[in-house]
UniProtKB/TrEMBL annotation:
Keywords: Lipoyl. It comes from Dolichospermum compactum NIES-806. Belongs to the GcvH family. The glycine cleavage system catalyzes the degradation of glycine. The H protein shuttles the methylamine group of glycine from the P protein to the T protein. The glycine cleavage system is composed of four proteins: P, T, L and H. GO terms for biological process: glycine decarboxylation via glycine cleavage system; protein lipoylation. It comes from the Bacteria. This is Glycine cleavage system H protein. Binds 1 lipoyl cofactor covalently. Its cofactor is (R)-lipoate.
Length: 130
């Protein structure tokens, strides 16, 4: 099995990703996590205006196999959430790095994105057990 991980993203060892565009961070989960979870049946995300904190849980994703917490790679205020995914969570499997994002967050500290996160190669090595 060969999974691709976008090089311009940063990753948590708990399988969330973050992509920074100015002061807006886009957060989602990796294709590896989706493959491990199987059929996604429910997604719980914070509301617009909520503050999420790096290292804390901001929601959960549920599959037919398990319920997993979602961990925040950054601290900031939710400015957008992917409502179509909440309405139909299985869509995340189709395009996790594009249309399958979870949140857009206005971050407090852009440097935080690179702290305690993995590059695509580091993440790939981790999930492959290298």
């Amino acid at each position: 099995m060969s999974l691709e991980y976008p090089q311009d993203f940063r990753y948590l060892d708990s399988h969330e990703y973050v992509r920074l565009d100015g002061e807006i961070a886009t957060i989602g989960i990796t294709a590896f996590a989706i493959e491990q979870l199987g059929d996604i049946v429910f997604l719980e995300l914070p509301d617009i205006g909520d503050v999420i904190t790096k290292g804390d849980t901001f929601g959960s994703i549920e599959s037919v196999k398990a319920v997993e917490d979602l961990n925040s790679p950054v601290t900031g205020t939710v400015v957008e959430r992917n409502q179509p995914l909440i309405d139909d969570p299985e869509q995340v499997t189709e395009d996790p790095y594009g249309e399958g994002w979870f949140l857009k967050v206005r971050i407090n500290d852009p440097d935080e994105v690179n702290e305690d996160t993995l590059t695509a190669d580091e993440y790939s090595d981790q999930v492959l057990g290298v």
